[in-house]
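[Meeting: bench + compute handoff]

Bench side (C.D.) handed over the final construct sequence. Compute side (W.E.) agreed to return the predicted structure before the next meeting so the bench team could plan truncations. Sequence as handed over:
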Amino acid sequence: MRKAMYAVLALLVHLCVGEYVRLTWNITYVQVNRDGHVDRLAIGVNNKLPIAPVYITQGDTLFLTVHNMLDVPTAIHAHGLVQTNMPYMDGSSMITQCGIPPNSSFTYEIRSNSQSGTFFLHSHHMGQLADGLRTPFIIREKYPLGYDEDVLVALEDWYATDSRDKLVELLAPDTNTPLSPTFPFGLINGFNGNDTKAVKFERGKKYRFRVLSMSTTEYWKFTIPGHKLEVVEADGVMCEPQLVDGLDLAPAQRYSVVVTARDSDEFNFVYNCTLYADFVPRIKGLNPRVYTGLIEYKQGAPIKHVKVEDQIEWADDVSMHALDNEAVFGVDRQIELAMRGFLTTDKRRLRRLGTLPYAEPHVPSIFTAMSMGALAMDSRVYGPQTQAYIIGFNQSVELVIKNTQGQTHSQHQHGGTFQIIERGPVDHSELEPPPDPRFSLDDVPKIPVRTFTGVPMRRDTIDVPPFSYVKVRLRMESGIWLHHCHLSPAHDVAGLSVTFVVAPDVMQRTLNIPRVFYEQCEMQGIKTEGNAAGNWGFDMTGLPPVPVEMPAPKAQGAQGAAQGAPAKALPKVPK
């Protein structure tokens, strides 16, 4: 009898806690030619690139041991995972840790808890994401969802330039010579998009396509002409099924769609993956780049090319509904963020979301929160360029994220998911002064206001199209959580980030940061107490001077024009 009871107890523990999955990454430089055109130095794992996808099951805990064999620090972020009660495992360099020093090791403990869906692991140190340090992270549901097979479609953009060289170019003082546009190649499941393997279909079966964008800058569209896509997940949040023709993915967004195979195997079909950007010139063969793969019903069957209609229905997050029926949050506090350029007096082209471009503190913000006592509740101790917002315990925050520019942005939230409340146009009076006299604000597309109905959808990465705003609500656990544009390194490193410091008083009472995090900092000569500069009180001696913005130019014409508009056409109306 007692053995039977222990067996039942063991089963219940397994169902609630799950397995411990252990994985080791030796992070190294590798010489690769991923696109079939350019040999370049990149960052891989165990001397290989692409990095193998990581699979666990809902309830499992991943222990990821990282041996840093680079000559610079690194840090690994589980994109989309909420690190419940363990904000120090978020993997954000100089926010929640100092980074793993060269020639040292660290083990991340990543608990899936009740989370499941499509995520990815990537470096969160400078621009290492763009150098290849990224891979899908799939958390399978504990119980089947009624489909027959899983199909992974991991999408990447791939540039010929090392991220460190690109950062030097992007952040160098302006010489009045515009940067030449660059046109990356597309990778599908780690390899040249033209070298994809056929996806085999059987009549009547259901296939779950996990489509994720691990791109750094450019966007992707995904369609299977002749087939409908039933959206069932966005960014790890299950939703009521939404039947669409295609997916339009911003960098770092993910979807799961269920595709039902046709009843006949007379024809094979193709799927389309299109890499594009609205902020560089449209040049045939460069932007967009179109990649196709085979949906194979029967080997050797003819391919049926289905015409794609001009007006197709794309997945639309504001009209989706979260499957768990989480009620819309009230509003305890509203924070307005606006993407703007920031040309400094020394002619560096930075960007800002708050009042100043983001810059890393000299002390990781989590240690400032833990060591500054009552002053941790004062945003000034986190430094002027950390752009810290203090949020109370269990507070519901409404963010109004405004894109005043002609370039789209992909905003990611650490430590939680957004409830998507509303999309609409930014008032013309708030748009940035124009650099190009050929465009007028009168040419900006008319954008309708659209509000959620019923239960709002949630996701952790949201696209903010040109000249538009998105209104979202969220509630985060105590911790230090970054909010940033995921166009990397062009936007996040250039300053499009802010820091949410959630309930630092609660952190001081409840968190016990493991000693290894302090040792990482000590090995690099980084302080682990004090304000952003490593001093006490509000003394910021030692931080770089706060950048000074060049006076804004006068608007061209009566109203001016839309900054960042492409050379040949204004951006499309947001979906």
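W.E. noted at the follow-up: The helical segments are 2-17, 163-171, 365-371, 504-510, 515-523. C.D. will use this when planning the next construct.
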